[in-house]
Design a protein that fits this description.
By secondary structure, this protein is mainly β. The protein is built from no helices and 23 strands. It has a single domain, classed as AttH-like domain (AttH-like fold), CATH 2.40.370.10.
Length: about 375
């Protein structure tokens, strides 16, 4: 079988293998994620594009909120071992300038777009995410996050929305995480699932906040970082914060927050406080995360494309596929006498027990 691909032309190999191979773990993946919105948080959209070399599958998803409805386009195809082909059905990514400028083009299922993102500063590399389930590796991921500005347009069923230097976030992640079909032989003894994830990149006028945390069931953080990045800053100019702690007020009967806060300090000892107020909910299943039919890495045949729509407010928030959300939120940053307003897509995924939140079972809601 031929294994040389376009990627082999570039000096980017990490192992003696051709680029078509990524170590030995069947769950290796490589993904783009994007979101964008107007300055007031309206006309939100999001995109995911995943490559799964050892499953030989590629998939892509676009989803947008319009008047309380979430409209999605899903696509999946056989990868054919070619990782440099960034088109999946109607969705294409074009890398114009690595780490700085990318273009999204969409044309299918009543959805069209031509929109370009530019980074506001150099991306922030997050600490490596490594997690095991007993002896078995569950997650080993590198990721960077970047606040961006979007210029272009998105059109749904003939209704076009223009974006001009509009706020958004993108990330790139790669490594090992559960994808595709479930493992037929779980690691004994079987454990109840537990995952607590908060991710809150936030736009302000001249800077962006990056903040996230993974916690175990006792509330102890196993991966966390918070930093402020000024527009135009390079990798060494991000202002990393210390002692960061999220304060979550959960909506009654849900695992979605009604109010969110963050406290931290600069290395000079100055207090930093950020608060978020949710405005509208975006379901991450709209771009494949936890989707029962269009989950990441699922084999759908040579090429499959489908459209779906739903209203997030009509969904049961405690059904597993509805737990993972981004909450479009108004934000306020207070530090050193400043008070700055901003906007965020505040991401949450909480499964299983989490003592500080009062969650005891797998899917119980807040009291």
């Amino acid at each position: 079988m031929p294994v040389l691909t376009k990627g082999d032309e570039y000096p980017i190999h990490q192992t003696p293998d051709p680029i078509a191979f990524s170590g030995t773990d069947r769950n290796f993946y490589d993904r783009y994620f994007f979101n964008g919105m107007q300055e007031d948080g309206s006309n939100f959209f999001s995109v995911a594009f995943g490559v799964y070399p050892h499953l030989n599958v590629c998939d892509a998803h676009f989803s947008a909120l319009r008047d309380g409805e979430q409209i999605s386009v899903h696509a999946s195809r056989i990868l054919e071992m070619e990782r440099m082909n960034l088109t999946c059905g109607p969705i294409t990514i074009e890398v114009i300038e690595p780490l700085q400028k990318l273009r999204l083009k969409i044309d299918g299922e009543g959805v069209k777009a031509d929109i370009v993102m530019e980074g506001r500063s150099f991306p922030l590399q997050e600490p490596r995410f490594t997690r095991r389930n007993g002896p078995r590796l569950m997650m080993d991921v590198t990721r960077f996050t970047q606040a961006v500005r979007w210029t272009g347009w998105v059109e749904i069923d003939g209704k076009r929305v223009e974006y001009k230097a509009a706020p958004g976030v993108r990330d790139r992640s790669w490594g090992v995480r559960p994808i595709g079909a479930a493992d037929p032989q779980p690691t004994p003894p079987v454990q109840s699932p537990q995952f607590y994830w908060i991710w809150a990149p936030t736009h302000f006028k001249d800077r962006a906040l990056y903040a996230h945390v993974n916690e175990d069931g006792a509330g102890d953080a196993w991966n966390t970082r918070a930093a402020l990045a000024t527009d135009g800053g390079n990798a060494t100019e991000h202002a990393h914060l210390i002692g960061e702690k999220f304060e979550m007020t959960w909506a009654k009967g849900k695992r979605h927050a009604a109010k969110m806060g963050l406290t931290a300090k600069t290395h000079a000892g100055k207090d930093v406080r950020v608060s978020w107020t949710p405005v509208e909910t975006f379901q991450m299943k709209g771009i494949g995360y936890g989707h029962p039919e269009w989950g990441h890495g699922q084999f759908k045949g040579p090429l499959a494309v489908a459209r779906e729509s739903f209203r997030p407010k009509d969904l049961n928030p405690l059904e597993p596929q509805n737990l993972h959300i981004q909450e479009i939120s108004k934000a306020v940053l207070e530090s050193d006498g400043e008070r700055i307003e901003g906007v965020s897509a505040f991401e949450q995924l909480v499964i299983g027990p989490h003592s500080p939140s009062g969650f005891k079972g797998i899917l119980d809601g807040a009291e």
